[in-house]
Amino acid sequence: xxxxxxxxxxxxxxxxxxxxxxxxxxxxxxxxxxxxxxxxxxxxxxxxxxxxxxxxxxxxxxxxxxxxxxxxxxxxxxxxxxxxxxxxxxxxxxxxxxxxxxxxxxxxxxxxxxxxxxxxxxxxxxxxxxxxxxxxx
Length: 137
Prior knowledge:
The protein is 33% helix and 23% strand. By secondary structure, the chain is α+β, with helices and mostly antiparallel strands. It folds into two domains: 8-77, Monooxygenase (Up-down Bundle); 93-135. Strand 3 and strand 4 form a beta hairpin. The longest helix is centred in the N-terminal third of the chain and has 12 residues, at 40-51. The termini are far apart. The model has no long low-confidence stretch (mean pLDDT 78).
């Protein structure tokens, strides 16, 4: 099959099934593919899917930053290793802070509750367990 005659919409339909890495590779084939592979809506879909971001939570306007630029920023500049999940809160966690020695962590949620948690150290990493639950009523 000859793919050189495919239009922008046809390429978009194919490219939306690719990973970010594969999309970058496709952008190096020719000018037409470069233009389609850098489509902002295509990168927006990847951003939402790969990082689990809800569309209403995107805090930048496309005119300010291209979705591809934001995708690259999240891959290159943001820590993405999950060590522990904060499941003590029943609602969205707004703030997390650590003591200077790293042995205590405090987190607060939208329902005005905060947890102070102490570290349980193991050889390779630190897990936190709840030691205090307070309400900010």
